[in-house]
Amino acid sequence: MNCGDCLENLDSYLDRELTDAELSEVQRHMADCPPCEDLYKLHVNMKRLVKVCCDQGEAPAHLRSKLRQILF
Ligand SMILES: [Zn+2]
């Protein structure tokens, strides 16, 4: 797996939509590739932030759309 494959799978990985085989490939890649791991951690934090904001309905619309742009 290269960085492109890893990033392509990142969203599915975060949503736990990967097969076990894909999952372990992503994990193996990130173990060897700090930049991808950093990106993964960033996505996790962003997703958590978006979820909190959206659940509480407190995030201003422009902030939510900005976060969506970054995430999706
Ligand atoms: Zn990588």
Q: Mean pLDDT, rounded to whole units? A: 85
User: What gap, in angstroms, lies between the N and C termini?
Assistant: 21 Å
Largest sheet: none
Please give the share of residues in helix: over 70%
What is the domain total for the residues? 1
Residue windows where pLDDT falls under 50 for at least 5 positions: none
Describe this structure in words.
It contains four helices and no strands. It is mainly α and 72 residues long. The chain has one domain (3-71). 8% of the residues are buried. The mean pLDDT is 85. The structure holds zinc ion. The site of zinc ion has 6 residues, from helix 1 and helix 3.
Please tag this protein with its features.
72 residues, mainly alpha, 4 helices, 0% strand, binds zinc ion
Brief description of this entry?
The chain has 72 residues and is an all-alpha fold.
Q: Any chance you could write out the topology, listing elements then pairs?
A:
Blueprint: H1 3-14, H2 20-32, H3 34-56, H4 61-71
Helix pairs in contact: 1-2, 1-3, 2-3, 3-4
The structure holds zinc ion.
Zinc ion binds next to helix 1 and helix 3.
